[in-house]
Design goal:
globular; 8 helices; single chain; 5-stranded parallel β-sheet; about 220 residues; alpha/beta
């Protein structure tokens, strides 16, 4: 059985979006890590890895379900992430679960409120997400929680390895295209801080839409 791969004629454009969305800040100690729920279990695995490096004392996993995650994580993204992290040696006492968020804005709003309720003071936080969700997550977090110094990171995998781990190139490309659109749409709607989209990213984005990778686009009219 062949390994799923990105079509060769699309690789350059997909890499362009992939590299743009990754932030990968240098890691340093923070007050809390915030693991954003999704279909990707590597978020929880990576959170556990960094916890054991003593980069933070607490992990907050956030996320309910979406159509793309309900089959994989039927009891909710954050609940399953907690279990994955615990299986990697993170103690239950170092994990908070926010199980109600259904979008990125709610991830940060509900996690912010949960941490305040628990009396956790946050000056610096590390956002852990899918590799290509970093930029959108950051722009949303800074809009909703501007006083916090946010860092972003994700599992350190090349694009080809990541696609193989997910097993669905189309899903990855569709999500990259969708997140690119959301950077602009959400900023214009006041849900995120603005980001300048480089010309090569705009061109790659347009070509991928033309090639049919548009299932994650949101209506704008």
């Amino acid at each position: 059985m062949s390994t799923p791969e990105i079509p060769p004629e699309l690789k350059e454009d997909v890499e362009t979006l992939w590299n743009f969305h990754r932030i990968d800040d240098p890691l340093r100690p923070v007050d809390v890590a915030i693991g954003l729920g999704s279909h990707d279990p590597s978020v929880a695995v990576y959170a556990a890895e960094l916890y054991h490096k003593q980069l933070f004392p607490l992990i907050a996993f956030t996320g309910a379900n979406a159509p793309t995650t309900v089959d994989r994580f039927p009891r909710g993204e954050a609940v399953h992430y907690r279990e994955i992290a615990m299986s990697k040696g993170v103690p239950d006492s170092a994990i908070l679960v926010e199980p109600k968020a259904t979008n990125t804005a709610e991830n940060f709003e509900f996690t912010r409120d949960l941490l305040r309720q628990r009396g956790v003071s946050v000056a610096r936080a590390l956002i852990l997400s899918r590799p290509y969700q970093q930029r959108r997550a950051y722009t949303t977090a800074k809009k909703l929680w501007p006083e916090v110094d946010f860092l972003c990171s994700a599992i350190q995998q090349p694009l080809a390895d990541y696609v193989e781990s997910i097993g669905d190139p189309k899903r990855v490309i569709d999500m990259l295209v969708g997140d690119t659109q959301r950077l602009t749409v959400y900023a214009e709607a006041g849900y995120a801080i603005p980001q300048k989209i480089p010309a090569d990213v705009e061109t790659a984005y347009d070509r991928l839409i033309t090639a049919g990778y548009d299932s994650r686009l949101i209506p704008t009219k």
